[in-house]
Design a protein that fits this description.
This protein has helices at residues 2-70, 72-77, 82-85, 87-94, 147-155, 198-207, 239-246, 249-259, 295-346, 362-408, 456-474, 480-492, 571-574, 585-595, 602-617; strands at residues 99-106, 120-124, 131-135, 159-160, 164-165, 173-182, 188-197, 215-219, 225-227, 264-269, 275-282, 288-294, 420-426, 434-441, 444-452, 501-509, 514-520, 526-528, 534-536, 556-559, 565-569, 626-632. Helix 1 (2-70) runs antiparallel to helix 9, helix 9 (295-346) crosses helix 10 (362-408) and helix 11 crosses helix 12 (480-492). It is rod-shaped and about 185 Å long. The protein starts with a helix and ends with a strand. A hairpin with a 5-residue loop joins strand 10 (264-269) and strand 11 (275-282). It is α+β, with helices and mostly antiparallel strands and 633 residues long. Among the domains are: 71-200, 2-Layer Sandwich (Beta-Lactamase), CATH 3.30.450.20; 208-297, Beta-Lactamase (2-Layer Sandwich); 411-632, Phosphatase 2c, domain 1 (4-Layer Sandwich). The strands form 4 sheets. Strands 1, 2, 3, 4, 5, 6 and 7 form a 7-stranded antiparallel β-sheet that branches.
Length: 633
């Protein structure tokens, strides 16, 4: 069941991952578009609210301005009588609810009977709503130096004052609209004013809150806060001091724009570290109004919707996973059964039943492939059993042949009559084509080392015939060249396979120490002199045996010394290769021969040379038969 679970889970997870990627991509795209739409909508909504509030303020200001300007003719009409003048501000306050106070402030000594100051002031009591009148000008209230009088008198223009607290007059936060009055000589002799309460404006401004944490504020012409949710900032702080406090250059730039009468919408970071939107617009009297609201309020609904969509999406993915898992498990059930079938086949159970499928898709092709594989395995196993039986017979025969071949070669080197002789052969295969042999007759040693062309059974047969021919001809009392000639003639006759054997044929007289030899295409042998020096025995070139009948082989001879050593070998020694294809070579052979101790036996010499060859090849497979014969006089 592990395979079933694994495949079903992996396929289900792959589908879920793909669906999740698509879902996340779609969700991210919708979220980006929604945030953009919300941002644009919030900006548009704030701008609309701001425009509405601005129009309300402008309407209130225009009402005050119009009512005040319309009273100028009344002032001029009642000017001759100081008592009648005091009715003008009372009527202005009485018939105009937005106006909380009004005065007609005259030039010094304008009415000598009234003294230096004359400014009758009427105002609506904040507690009772009753209109009261007072004479406002005196030493403690020198209105000539106040902005609402000084600036319009100097410029001879209607003007709104900056907001102020009217101590000694209205006794509250207010702003004053001043209208200069002049005579026929165009000289200003009085200022008609109308006061409005900032409290009413503050309530209007504070009521504009499009979001929970949003707020609105009103700036005077110098950037001072006229209306603000934090009453401690009124008339004491400016938008520039606020920008400096929170370290916002953007807010300072917005303040500059507002003072220049610009409108717009921007973003800035508040003192709480949150990002805010701000929309601002000018008022007709030189003031400016703004609405500020944090990002979080704008996107609060979106965030709730996003979390809801995420939860719904995760639940949908879970349900989709369960459905896909069930469907995939049912679809992959035949694969699980096929897996069990393949496992039984792998264990050698070729009589297992392949599950049937009713579809015409890949599962059907897999079913047919398994059936074909099962039939092929059954046929292959039958052939393999037959082939194995044949190979076992062949291996057995090779083993017997190898044993017979080893038995054919001499293995007893003890009765050598004054000469120390030893030889060894290591075939590259079970049977090989190398040979060695020696015969001692009448104080004469006949010895031979050969290498048959090719390998395996044919070479082994050639080797057996060569060794038999050597045994026979060495008993005729002829020289090495005669022995080699007879072996050559025997092999050359009817040699359709063109096989041959290289032979070194030697004859040593143990009494005279004369060495006779004939080299039939074989490697030169090594002579180690009694003083330890070594050399290759120079021999005349002769053909290998078996190539051409009647070849005239030439005998050679040399007087040997007691203590000399002969090393006869096949090319499996000098042509032994390492993994990098470097060969043992003749120089290493001569170097080894010179290092053999004079007192070392022939067996030690042969075994050490073979060990040196194996150490050189470093485990690289033996590529040729290795034969070594050592003869020490």
């Amino acid at each position: 069941m592990r395979l079933k679970r694994s495949l079903a889970i992996r396929m289900s997870m792959m589908i879920i991952v793909a669906v999740s990627v698509l879902f996340i991509g779609a969700f991210a795209g919708v979220a980006i578009l929604a945030r953009r739409a919300l941002r644009e909508g919030a900006t548009r909504n704030a701008t609309l609210l701001l425009d509405k509030l601005r129009e309300e303020i402008n309407l209130s200001l225009r009402e005050v301005e119009t009512a005040t300007e319309n009273m100028i003719w009344v002032v001029k009409e009642k000017q001759p009588s100081p008592d009648d003048i005091s009715e003008v501000p009372r009527r202005l306050v009485e018939f105009n609810p937005p106006i909380i106070g009004s005065t007609v402030a005259f030039e010094p000594w304008f009415y000598p009977s009234e003294g230096y100051w004359y400014a009758p002031y009427s105002y609506r009591d904040e507690q009772t709503g009753v209109i009261k009148s007072i004479q406002m000008g005196n030493e403690n209230y020198d209105y000539f130096n106040m902005e609402w009088y000084r600036e319009p008198h100097r410029n001879a223009h209607n003007r709104w004052s900056d907001p102020y607290f009217d101590e000694g007059g209205g006794e509250q936060m207010m702003a004053t609209y001043s209208v200069p009055i002049w005579n026929e000589n165009m000289e200003v002799y009085a200022i008609l004013t109308a006061d409005i309460s900032l409290k009413r404006f503050s309530e209007k401004v504070a009521a504009v809150r499009p979001y929970e944490n949003s707020f609105s504020f009103l700036l005077g012409r110098s950037g001072t806060f006229i209306c603000h949710p934090d009453s401690t900032r009124l008339l004491t702080q400016t938008i520039f001091s606020e920008a400096q406090r929170i370290g916002s250059e953007t807010l300072a730039q917005v303040g500059e724009e507002m003072l220049r009468g610009k409108e717009g919408c921007t973003e800035y970071t508040g003192s709480d570290g949150r990002k805010h939107f701000m929309a601002y617009s000018p008022v007709s009297n030189g003031w400016s109004i703004a609405i500020s609201f944090p990002y979080e309020d704008v996107f609060a609904g979106l965030r709730r919707l996003q979390w809801l969509l995420i939860v719904i999406g995760l639940l949908d993915l879970l349900m989709l996973y369960l459905v896909i898992r069930k469907v995939v498990t049912r679809l992959t059930q035949p694969i699980t059964l096929f897996t069990y079938t393949a496992m039984n086949i792998a264990k050698g159970n070729f009589k297992v039943h392949v599950p049937e499928v009713n579809t015409q898709d890949e599962l059907k092709r897999l079913h047919d492939s398994l059936e074909y594989m099962l039939l092929s395995f059954q046929e292959y196993i039958a052939e393999l059993r037959s082939s194995t039986a044949s190979n076992e017979r062949y291996e057995s025969e090779l083993h017997i042949a190898s044993s017979i071949q080893r038995q054919m070669l001499p293995s007893d080197f003890s009765n050598s009559e004054g000469v120390d002789i030893f030889a060894m052969l290591s075939p590259a295969k079970q049977v090989g084509g190398d040979l060695y042999d020696f015969v001692i007759r009448n104080r004469t040693v006949y010895f031979a080392v050969g290498d048959v062309s090719g390998k395996g059974v044919p070479a082994a047969l050639y080797m057996a015939i060569t060794r038999a021919a050597f045994r026979f001809t060495s008993g005729l009392g002829i020289g090495p060249e005669g022995i080699l000639s007879r072996i050559n003639d025997v092999f050359a006759e009817g040699n359709a396979s063109a096989m041959f054997v290289t032979l070194f044929m030697g004859k040593l007289n143990l009494d005279t120490l004369e060495l006779e030899w004939c080299n039939g295409g074989h490697n030169p042998i090594v002579i180690v002199n009694p003083d330890g020096t070594s050399e290759f025995l120079q021999a005349k070139p002769n053909l290998a045996a078996g190539l051409f009948p009647g070849f005239p082989y030439v005998r050679e001879s040399r007087q040997m010394q007691k203590g000399s050593r002969l090393i006869v070998y096949t090319d499996g020694v000098t042509e032994a290769e390492r993994a990098d294809q470097a060969q043992f070579g003749e120089e290493r052979l001569l170097s080894f021969a010179s290092s053999v101790a004079p007192e070392a036996s022939s067996q030690t010499c042969c075994e050490d040379l073979f060990a040196a060859v194996q150490a050189f090849t470093a485990g690289n497979p033996q590529n040729d038969d290795v034969t070594i014969l050592s003869l020490k006089i």
